[in-house]
Write a structure and sequence with these properties.
heterodimer, A: alpha+beta, 6 helices, B: Beta-Lactamase, five-stranded antiparallel beta sheet, 24 helices, 23 strands
Amino acid sequence: MQRPSPNPVPSPVPDSCALLLKQLDPRLLAAGNDLSELSFSPIEVCFRGLEWLDEGTLQDLREQDGQHLAIRQALEGSLTGEVLWLLKEPDARRLVRILTGTPPGREPLSYSEREALTEVGNLLLLGLVEGLSDVLGMTVAATAPALRLGSAARLLPDEGSGGLAMSCEAKTGGKPLPGHVVLILSSLSSVYFDRHLRILADREGANARGAH
Amino acid sequence: MGSDLYEALVDALEQGVIVVDAAEHIEVWNYWMSKVSGISAEKAVGKKLKEVVPELASGAAHRAVRRALERGNSSFLSSALHPGQLPFYQFTAPDGSGSIKTIQQSIQIRPVSSHGAERRCLLQIRDVSRVVQMEDHLRQMSRLVDDQRIELEAQQAEVERKASFDPTTGLANRSRLRELLAQALPEDGTEAEGGAILVLDLNHFKTVNESFGHEHGDGILRSVARRISEAVRPGDLVARLGSDEFAVLLPGIGAEPALAWARRITEYLARPHLLDEQEVFLSASCGIAIYPDDGPQADLLLRSAERALHRARELGPSACELYRRAVDDPSSDMLSLTGSLHRAVDRQEFRLFYQPLVGLPSQRLSGVEALLRWHHPHRGFISPAEFVPLLEDNGLILQVGTWVLETACRQAQTWLETGLDPGKVAVNVSPRQFRDEGFAATVKNVLEATKLPPERLELEITETLLMKDQEQSQRMLAELKAMGINVAIDDFGTGYSSLGRLKRYPIDTLKIDRTFTSEIGANEDDNAICTTIIGLGHLLGMSVTAEGVETEEQLRFLAAHGCDCIQGYFFAKPMPADQLVEWYRARYSLSATG
């Protein structure tokens, strides 16, 4: 995988981001449905606040205190880079207890619990990846998921990278479970992605004008 | 890579491998799959996935297969999230036990593409049972270790609590108080915050204890502890130092407020204590030391407070006294002597005098007794009767006693090396020294250090001491005798001895007290006592020395009745080591030096 370069996209396109999120929404809901099918308490997933991560924002994410957990998948095809779901460790622990029905405890996550989290993260990330492919008309595939534990700084790509992130709030048993889905693209992919985003925005604009 | 080799490699994998084409026909079904499912590759290959493994052709697993085939995405299925939905495999364990093994699995589903060919889907099925089992085992072990750690910590906390607190009253004990005092008095040169230590002693508690019994006595002690704790400020430390001795640590206050607190406490303690519906009246004396002025270290400070307590006791019930005032009070002779004694140790004001022991009938020098003298810089020589009990009281006797022993042995060895044979050197042993568990080791160390042969040393102990703790006495005497040291009973006749017990002790010499010898010739009873002791000593196989012999008549009487050795002014008074040499030279006309 190519290492993304600092701030690869010329400028954030907030309107495009909002538009992308709007278009992604039904597809992400489908991913949520996949999650709900699992034989445990239903998880409602809500992606929101899609935003371009400048260096400062990414740095804020990195500097979050405490142990974190990330499920990561590499991207192949039209876009290369990586996508990951970042959760604070206590939140991940809470989720897994609900998933597997085990009582709350302070012990490290077990192998089965880590696998369960991996699958949930996999479904959630695939929802985004497939949504992006469809909305932007690109072919993007995600490789096998991997779970990692560590500080946010260790789990997120190196300082200086830019990326796309959305806060992702999953709800389990009525309680919110805050987290972030972060998309970090390689330099070339970022330019390509930005171009598609602008095309999307133009197309939407044209459609709106046509409607008038 | 050839097809045969490829198949062999896939079959060798310790995980299941299934490859399906776009229409979900099985293309690869490896040996592991055959082993766990009982379906051979011949039967599986070419069939639709849903015919062979229907669980993988529906629900989440099937969606994952479609994702791989249609979009090229990889997925992961965990058995933890799909109980009963993934293929359920059991097979006979290969360990020969015949047990049925259920496979707990996770499945990775990923696309496989080869150039020019349509996309296929690879399903990798991993048996994670062993990992899960191992982890379960480790968790159990970890819990067990945690439980044991918690139990050990609880035990350790209990041991620490017991080591630091008095079980009767629940107050801190002396050791804990010393710890806290040490913290309050930093030795690293940093300035101490300052404060006061109060030492309280219940007057006549022994009588109360004897009247009401120990159980009730403990009840009174608890009542006292409660009263003191109620009287002081929150955060002040109350401790029990000994049987009826308590202490209060009052940080951050000076002499006058400390005195006020002490009075408040003693007044509160003087109110009747209710015990089994009976009123018990107590009073307490209180000594106060201010830190860091009255003692820069915990031990010294406590000692100062105890000295002030001693003075307070003299002043009357419920009296409170500051150390500084007690020391400055000229009427407090005892206190000033005690203070001087501490300085005397440091300033080496102690001297050893030696009094000859003369053998009968030869009248040759058979030994010398080392006698401690204190030359006070202002008061001159002070009688041992005055200061030895003080040394006993404050524990300095251990330090001074060792100095006496070492000095006497060294002197005797010096005389031997310079040609003067002093016979045995007799050294008095105080009760506190004799009861000290390390005493025998101290004697041994001194003999080794001075090179004096053990048979040249005679330790003098009183008969009262010997009879007090007979078991300990017997043990200590046995240790000393094993070294080859002589033991003499000092001041014999003045205490109470059981002859039966005396017989059991390994005693070499009986020393007749001067009160009997001084009356020889004047008092028939004393004549009889002296002759009886001599006879008794010989009967028990001991030699007999008469102390305080001052006249020729006494000498003749004792010689006539078989006394073995004489000590007293008739021959010589106690004298410094150099004068003894002169005395020896003059008496025996020898050219001894040293």
